[in-house]
Amino acid sequence: VTRQLSTSVGRQGPVKYLTVIGSGLMGSGIAQVAAATGHNVTLVDQTDDILNKSMGNMKKSLERVAKKKYADNPKDGEEFISGVMGRISTNTDSSKAVEKADLVIEAIVENLGVKKQLFSALDKAAPQHTIFTSNTSSIPITDIAASTQRRDRFGGLHYFNPVPMMKLLEVVRTSETNDETFNTLMEFGKAMGKVTVPCKDTAGFIVNRLLVPYMLEAVRLVERGDAAPRDIDVAMKLGAGYPMGPFELSDYVGLDTMKFILDGWHERDPDHPLFKPSALLNKLVGEGKLGMKTGEGFYKHKK
Ligand code: NAI
């Protein structure tokens, strides 16, 4: 009854005030693009040091954008940058940071317990109309939403790295997400300049559900001695027209991330053949060969 009541008094117009929690790789990208498209953003992280660093990174990224976009008029470029940065404020207190929010996007560490703890606190601090979302790649949205009393106003917004470059946004609705919330999320995604695709709350949504098993199948080809990584990459680029081969992509994504996603799916669905662990992937991760970020994965990289 409370849920129905809270929905009927809801005020889910277009999103003006956005709070992004977690200012790492994804959160800072989301904050930057949202501010660049005219939204007021509050960015939250654990310390001011982390937040200052993120603000610096966003500024650098905007400078690259401005250099291209305002090549003939550097003054307009500077105005663009200061305008965008001026729409982003920072806070280390997540409960305070959601007091005015129309929408919250969570992009903190990929851990269900930590996410639930955060949302349960936010649920008490945020207004009734505030929509909650997670950018999780591998945890069911339904499980995170269970920590709140607003499961009807809870969905997933799954962005792609790097957020300023990647056009796609997967908008995830659970069996409890109401229509108004879902529509607001689709509209918000478009207002951010993204192409939105709706999907249900299933393992990997659309992109990762297809991509991660594909990358793992490539690893299994190598494990069986059927072909070498370099040749598989050449084959998929020239034969399937993919911009990167599966091993180049694995090194870019991070082997630890791939393993983490796969292990999570395997735990939830142990009989699924595509979700079975890979000895080679586990070995490389065990050796700290995580891909580009550590200088070596399937390939050696210049740091
Ligand atoms: P990251 O490690 O770069 O950033 C996480 C940030 O959250 C850190 O700055 C950390 O200090 C902060 N944080 C952790 N706990 C917090 C808390 N309780 N309150 C406030 N801040 C907190 O991680 P990344 O890569 O940005 O991932 C974040 C989320 O986005 C994860 O759920 C991940 O699954 C998802 N994701 C990641 C993608 C990627 O390519 N890295 C792609 C799509 C989704």
Architecture overview:
The protein starts with a helix and ends in a 17-residue tail after the last helix. The chain has 303 residues and is of the alpha/beta class. Mean pLDDT is 95; it is low at 1-9. It has an 8-stranded mixed β-sheet. Helix content is 49%, strand content 13%. The chain is built from 13 helices and 8 strands. α9 packs across α11 (246-253). It has helices at 2-8, 25-36, 48-69, 74-86, 94-97, 112-125, 141-145, 179-191, 207-223, 229-240, 246-253, 255-268, 279-286; strands at residues 17-21, 40-44, 88-91, 103-106, 131-134, 154-158, 168-173, 195-200. The radius of gyration is 20 Å and the shape is globular. It has 2 domains: 2-200, Rossmann fold, CATH 3.40.50.720; 213-293, N-(1-d-carboxylethyl)-l-norvaline Dehydrogenase, domain 2 (Orthogonal Bundle), CATH 1.10.1040.10. It binds 1,4-dihydronicotinamide adenine dinucleotide. 1,4-dihydronicotinamide adenine dinucleotide is lined by residues 21-27, 44-46, 50, 94, 107-110, 114, 118, 135-137, 159, 161. CoA binds at residues 61, 68, 137. Pfam families: 3HCDH (PF00725), 3HCDH_N (PF02737).
Bound molecules: 1,4-dihydronicotinamide adenine dinucleotide
Gyration radius, rounded: 20 Å
What would you call the shape?
globular
Q: What's the helical proportion of residues?
A: 40-55%
Subcellular location: Mitochondrion matrix
GO molecular function: (3S)-3-hydroxyacyl-CoA dehydrogenase (NAD+) activity; NAD+ binding
Family: Belongs to the 3-hydroxyacyl-CoA dehydrogenase family.
Keywords: Acetylation, Differentiation, Fatty acid metabolism, Hydroxylation, Lipid metabolism, Mitochondrion, NAD, Oxidoreductase, Spermatogenesis, Transit peptide
